[in-house]
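Onboarding guide, step 5: your first structure request.
Type a short instruction followed by the sequence, for example:

Predict the 3D structure of this protein.
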Amino acid sequence: MTTNNNPIISIIVPVFNSEATIACCLESLINQSMQDVEIIIVNDGSVDNSEKICLKYQESYNNIRYIKQANQGVSVARNSGLMNAKGEFIMFCDSDDCYHTDACEYLFKKAVHSGADVVVGSVKKVFCDEKKIEVVKCESGSGKSDRILCLFQNYRLNQIWGNLYRADIILGNQIFFNKDIAIGEDLDWNCRVYSHTKKIEFIDDVVYNYLICNGETLSNKFHPNRYVDLDESFLSAEKLFAELGYGEHVMKIFYKREIERLWGSLISAIRKSNKLSYKEKVKNVKLFRKTNCFRDSVKYKNCDKQNIIRILLLKFRPIWLQTMVLSK
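The system replies with structure tokens like these:
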């Protein structure tokens, strides 16, 4: 597969210790039916055989560009890809996932035909252990606010893969990933991008396979700074929703979902199985109470009965008692 120095699409692939999956990922990209595509691999300090595999592909295909950097996290890796991208459009692919052969072609044709700034394709979630396939689609609405609401309702607002972005929207507005947050960075970035877009389109075609193995995702891992990180993405989403003028019904769903997202993080931090000290668990409760998400969700009209009880527990009970009750 060959391409010129002016590719239509740049696909950014951050890689970290992905020797088991990166070959399959790259095969899905080099075999795209659309030819004018460049693949930007950013090796984020891998210590396994990822580099060896990536370099082998780079030697065989002249549309693959390889960037190596010290381990700095996925956000810095994606930013490196963005700063080196030459394409008119941008796509992202995780190193353990893959695109369908016609993905670039379908997404690009929709962008050209509609003049959209972002085109969102359907995603197939593949669960390894359960041998289950779940197709996630989004129905079109009549305008930008309807489509962003659809993305939110279908848990697609926090997903960057499976989407095609117009590069000048991103680079013209200097929209880069926040390197200081390790979780929720996709939602934060997407919300800032969508704030600058005028038109969003969907296609029904499944373009991306998202692999979920052993039930392990970023959402159920424990991260020490996740309250701060999740709060950053919360503020970006809250700002976008305010710009779109969503009413109380939508905001109630938004606050409910966000407080539950943080609540799950709190339980993960202070449950008995977590090896944190009691002092550290108390600190987690304090951090949780300081988040903008918690403070905004204290508005009872934005919460259901279960969340009201949770908020009352955190607001009025002594922290030592909260920690004891919640850690059981």
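Each response can be followed by summary notes, for example: The first helix runs from residue 22 to 30.
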